[in-house]
TrEMBL record, chain A:
Belongs to the binding-protein-dependent transport system permease family. It is a multi-pass membrane protein. It comes from the Bacteria. Its main location: membrane. Gene3D superfamilies: MetI-like. InterPro entries: MetI-like, MetI-like_sf. GO terms for cellular component: plasma membrane. This is ABC transmembrane type-1 domain-containing protein. Residues 81-269 form the ABC transmembrane type-1 domain. It is found in: Cell inner membrane; Cell membrane. The chain crosses the membrane at residues 30-56, 68-98, 119-141, 147-167, 250-271. It holds the Pfam family BPD_transp_1. The keyword Transport applies. It comes from uncultured Arthrobacter sp.
Amino acid sequence: MTALRPGGRPSPSMPVGIGVRGRPVLRTAFGVLLVFWILVPLVPLVLWSVAGLWQVPAVLPGTYSLDAFAVLAVPGTLAAALSSLLLGGTVAVIATPLGLMGALAAQALPGRCGRAVDLILLLPLAVPPFALVMGANITLLRLHVPAFAGVVLLLVVVALPYTTFMFRSALATYEQRFEDVALTLGADPRQVLRHVRAPLLSAATVRAFFLAFLVGWGDYITTLLVGGGQLTTLPMLLGSAAASTGNEQLVAVLSLAVIIPPVLILAAVALPATIRTRARKPARTPAGTWVRALTRKAGL
Amino acid sequence: MSSKLEARSISRSFGSTEVLHAVSLTVPPSECVALLGASGSGKSTLLRIIAGLDAPSGGHVLVDGEDLAMVPVERRGMALVFQKALLFPHLNVIDNVAFAARMAGTRRKEARAEAMDYLELVHLADYARRPVGSLSGGQEQRVALARALARNPRILLLDEPFASLDVQLRHTMYDLIGDIRAQLAPTIVVVTHDRQEASILADTIAVLDDGRILQHGTVHQVHYQPATRTVNELLGGLNTVPGMVSDGHHHSVLGSLPVQTGATDGPSDLMIRQEALTLVPARGPTSRLTSGSAGGEPPTIKGCVSGLTSLGARTLVRVLVSSENPTGTRHGSSADPPPEVSERSLIAGGPLNLGNTEASGVTLTVDVPGHPPLLSGQVITLSLQDQRAWAVPTE
């Protein structure tokens, strides 16, 4: 019995069923499991948000109500959402270009120096946020740094490894000769930046921006400790609601309010690319799909 | 559109490594020059310096007499096509070709209209609206060519542009370059390591080795009148015979052969291209070999077949010529028949290295059409066409 190895040569020991048909089935199964892994925890949350009365040991709510969603229209909630948006956006706006510069520096430096820069830029991932905040909090207070600025400053440090990693991966496969070609075609360095480098790195830029935004949007610890209660964001509202009992519906709705906006942004960014990819000949790489989908407006 | 290009004493060092050593090259307007060399010979570095993508450590690049030292890449009026097409993935085919016009400030509609002309030139007008990811390798390269031509360059630089294409596609591209030259007559510098490609595309070939131009001449010159043994080898010459030049003749294990006028007396290598040798039909064992120039016939060399290598439609025949059996024809010498070659001794001790000499003789390689019915050890006679023996001082 023979089957195909990844290299295409028949393997005498591998049954046909596993070699040719079994692997896709396994892959699909693992994919479905992964989706369940992510979605299943959200199910109780969704149920709680619409539950009128849900008592133990009932598997499902006894009654359903949308009353808890009224909290979303409360001015305080809207203000908190705006604060979260502002915080996430500010962190992303600062951390994204810093990540690009860090990645460029790490790439430009030879051997050990480049790896040292990589290590430094990834270091915040190794430090627990709580420890980072406690260490920096006193210093920020002594320097009279405003709460919002202090929170942004620390969250940018937390976001930097993500943005750097995104750009590092993109630059690793970036073909510098695209810029050489553009130059010889008469593009000046500014045009090269706008019409070649920016579109080619836009997929990584969007991903980096999104991750940095999430760091600011969903932060609780840093906002609580450095903000000192002066900065009220959605996670802060959620935290205070969750601190007391009997607010399960409210907590669920606020949780969804924190979760859904980023998911919508992700869908808005990714779905058109997926639809376009299916509509025409498939792009060669996922990265290529991102590039084409996300940068069409940035091109010529 | 076309301009004269001059590279004067271009040097380039990376740290302590000198990649180019005072290279000088002149390309007349509308001519095509091939920079031929092995990997690492410095040919791509020279091309990048000409394009302005790299700065020379010394020397100057001039176009129509103007020194380009202070002229940035984008204002040099050149276009470069790499081995990889490098089409911008975020633009479709026509917008790739329209890129140069757009950068020059042309409106999109006009730029696309111009681009369409160049797409028609490369026979890809029907592919204008396609994403570049849907093109084949050959189509990508044609779009890259169209994109470069749409720049309307004074000089077109090609850096091994067809190396990644299969043989059939490559020949299609050669035809395309021929069409482009006929229609637009650009000055072209093409970098390649393929001597056949260089010969097809270029008017002249500059042979680079170790950062130096060893010879710059016509296709015929670099093949049949190589400046050095290295040039001969880079151009695929398989026969190099060491010896001594005196009085216009090269004396070696082959005997005495007339060489080019002006050959320097002293230790020299004799270059005989495998294509310049032909097999002489057998005249019987007792036939006398006629004199070369004295008899009005080309010089002949007698030897023993030591191996055959099929090239498909052609065959390389390796012929061992013993020192006991030098040239059948000795110019100006006696017309005595040469001593017969001992087939057994030749087979037993015959070297198989192409063009290498052994103490007992030398192996010559002959490129013949088809599949000659020869047997190993068979004694044959070779004729040297047009007296194309070329001697260069030993390196």
